[in-house]
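Exercise: predict the structure of this protein bound to iron/sulfur cluster.
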Amino acid sequence: MHELLVYAIYLVPLIILIIVYRRKGRKRTKAAQAEWQEVKAAGLTEPPSLHPLIDPAICIGAVSCAKACPENAIGIIDHKGFFINPSVCIGHGACAAACPSGAIRLVFGTERRGVDIPFVYPSFETNIEGLFIAGELGGMGLIRKAVEQGKQAIAHIKKRRVAGTDYDVIIIGAGPAGISATLGAQEAGLRYLTLEQEDAIGGTALHYPRQKIVMTAPMTLPQIGLVKLTEISKEALIELWEDIAKKTGIKINFSERMDVLRHEDGKFVVSTPKGQYTAGSVLLAIGRRGTPRKLDVPGEEMAKVCYRLVEPSQYQGKHALVVGGGDSALEAALSLAEEPGTTVTLAHRSEVFAGAKPKNRERIKAAEQNGRIKVLMKSKVLQIEKERVLMDHNGHPMEIPSDVVIVCAGGTLPIPMLKEIGIRVETRYGT
Ligand SMILES: Cc1cc2nc3c(=O)[nH]c(=O)nc-3n(C[C@H](O)[C@H](O)[C@H](O)COP(=O)(O)OP(=O)(O)OC[C@H]3O[C@@H](n4cnc5c(N)ncnc54)[C@H](O)[C@@H]3O)c2cc1C
Ligand code: SF4
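Solution:
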């Protein structure tokens, strides 16, 4: 009787706990496996850069990594952490920090896809004297880290001045690393020039989805001091950068892209479509998105062609053509389709949207079915004219009315140019 009572008190709750634990485990596994299948079907199995590598032999299935990941890139399959959605990983390592058993390492690239990482010293100087790299181009993808690196790079740059140049430093890029470096350069009284290819401040954040919640940590900016941030919307973050630029009066040459960088006679020569400048030091804070890939067709130089959707409402009642097949193209087309009176055509050169998230593909399909978006697969832009675009659709000539063309065809990193001027670059395959 006594034994029975002990069983009832201890064993029954234990059995219930085990049943609940197993059920939860099965549910998690099912959900994670379903997502992994979708990700594989979409061909989105490669992470962009730094990402977690989970050792199943050490993983104890604590679930803390999955809970810590704000991008939902990690799931739990059979009580082990599994990297189910590699393409959305932003490499900030919250998963590794949360793992209680040390089963997660952060690595660059995979066996199949190498990632080029330039070599930098702790001062952020490359193997070329006077040429510095800060922020995500160096491999670390985080706003707070980019800010810190930009600031530290300037602390080293201000110690070296080269006579006979237009500037002490040319900073390329106005994302977090470039903004912080520009603030630092101005504070240090350096002759600086900051070039930004986009028409706005903020870097990659300009391309985050609308209202994305950005996770960051308090950071210290030159001239500003401690900025206490933890979570902030994309829009509020951009506004913060704009306010800082206004308050401090930093100067940024917007819509001016560095095309060529040369190192001659101990100084650097930066060429842009608007001019040529010399400097004793150059700080590359260009991130990893690269320069928008162009279509290279006649008419592309027209003002109606852009490479990022800024404010969909400005295209109300207009004919919009979106070119591309990745998430940014699909999201741009979907946002435009919400605007009253806007007609939207989405053109992609391939047969499928292989590079887009399943959810976006489903939304496009629904928008096509209800007539909000016209989808042209296997199509290519041939020529852009004032009020129309000439296309090749599946081998047939086609003409569509268009007041605006938004090209979302990815970007190209200037790694070949960096190699050419002698920067040591290492291709990492999962290390
Ligand atoms: C979807 C997504 C979500 C993210 N979420 C977070 C998050 O929640 N928290 C977080 O900390 N980080 C997040 N990140 C990472 C974060 O955005 C980056 O780590 C950070 O922006 C890197 O800053 P950066 O200054 O090095 O580069 P970037 O922000 O990429 O800025 C580089 C700038 O250089 C310019 N540029 C490039 N080439 C040239 C050229 N040739 N000439 C002139 N200008 C040029 C670009 O236009 C750009 O403005 C996220 C990234 C993505 C993609
Ligand atoms: S590095 Fe960040 S985004 Fe990538 S899986 Fe870990 S927590 Fe998620």
